[in-house]
Structures are given as structure tokens and as C-alpha cells.
Amino acid sequence: MSALLQVEDLVVEVQARRGTSTPVDGISFEINRGETLGLVGESGSGKSLTAMSIIKLLPTRAVQMTGGRIVLDGVDMASYSNRQMRDIRGLRIGTIFQEPMTALNPSFTIGFQIAEPLRRHLKLGRKAARARVIELLEMVGIPRPQEIASSYPHHLSGGMRQRAMIAMAMSCEPDLLIADEPTTALDVTTQAQILDLILDLQEQHGTAVLLVTHDLGVVAQACQNVTVMRRGLIVEQASVFDIFERPAHPYTEALLDSMPARNAGKARLPHIAEGVFEA
Question: Which spans of this chain does the record mark as coiled coil (predicted)?
């Protein structure tokens, strides 16, 4: 079975007055349908640039993808125009951004923003889109969905904004969901709720998930496979079990050593069936 997403020899360069730097330098990985892949590394490792390269939302003109292929379901998107990518974003690839307060437009209501991909990609009319928005808000566990749909982002808590962002990302039931540090700005209890929500929605819709994070606790809970990045390079790729129990690279070992309760094996890998650790 071919992978849903294949990233091959991706290179991202930054043009600056002092010259050119390469924060992402020839990385490759793939994600199968229904799989959650953790893209892990410290701040500055290049993981978010990698994620944004997939959907061509790099932060400035000075940051450009200069090499490699990004293949979605057998089609290379590297040469797609901005117009073609607008047809992909939201419909085939949904994105949960790290900070929903900056990703959501403060000038429009939550309902308007969730309805936008429904009207653009699925061609729903205003009433049908509004009804679907209410369903989506209920699906992500937001109370009083009709009231929230008429609210603006600054009216909502951080956890509520993130749930609204998830509703928007999943509105067209995309094949791939990119979650860029989706729990970083949230308290511990809300983090767990948001992560459980993403996994529940993945199970319902069979969506592949690229989970970008520096939190190995999140990786242990959510991922089947892990790609570890450092300074723009991939230093290790393995199953989540092998990453935690048999790390092959010193950097991976250092990341694990930074975790509290390093030796609590079963607590760190709750989604792996009991008995594995005795095998």
C-alpha cells in the first residue's frame, strides 16, 4: 500500500543579508492513511517549517522550498501554484495551527470562519453551511454551539479557540491533518482533552495526522511512528516503541532524558497494548 503523504529530500532555504541558511536540509518521511506520525525536535529544529512547506504557507518570501518533492496520494504538489494549493488546503489537508488567536481572524465570527471552507470546497449554501457549523462545534465538544458560532475569537478561552480551530480543520473531512504544536499554549487538563479529541476524530474519519511537537509525552500518547529532527536534519526514524525503549541516536536519548519519570515505561506508552513491555 502506497503512503498517503511522501516528503522526499525536502530543502528549505532562508535568504538573508548575511547569506543563505538551510533550516531544513534534505529530509524525507512518509505517512500512511490513518497513521499518526510524530515530527519531534527542539525549537529551531525545522519541524514547523517542514509542516508549513507541505501546504506552502512559509512565513515570508525570504523562506523558500528549494528542493525535494511533496507527494499527496501519488501527486507531486511541489510545483502547484498558489491557486492549486488553495484548492488542496482545507479540502485534502486540514491544519491546526500552534496559536489559534493569531490563526483566527479577529474581525469575523467563529461560525463565519468555520463555514468558509464548507462554502468554498463543498459549495454549501449559507443555511446548509450554518447547520454544518453547529454540528462541527457540537462534534468538538463546544457547549452552546449556536451562541459560540456568533462569537468572535476574543470571546473564547484558549481551549475553546483550539476546539474551533479543530472544527475548521476537520470541516471537509480531509485526508491529512497537520497539527502544529496543537497543545502548547494550553493548560495540562485542556491539553489532554484536545489531544483526545484529535485522536477520536482521526478514528472516526480515518485521517492521517502529522503531529508536530517537542513534547514526547504527547508522542507517547498519540503516535505510531516518530521522526526526530535536529538542526534541519532527520537524526532518527522509528516506531514509537523503539524510540522510547531503544533510541538509536544520542539526541533522541537526550530528549528522552529531559522527560520526567523517564523509567515509567507503561505510563509513557499508554496506547500500546499491555504485555508488550514483557515481550
Answer: none
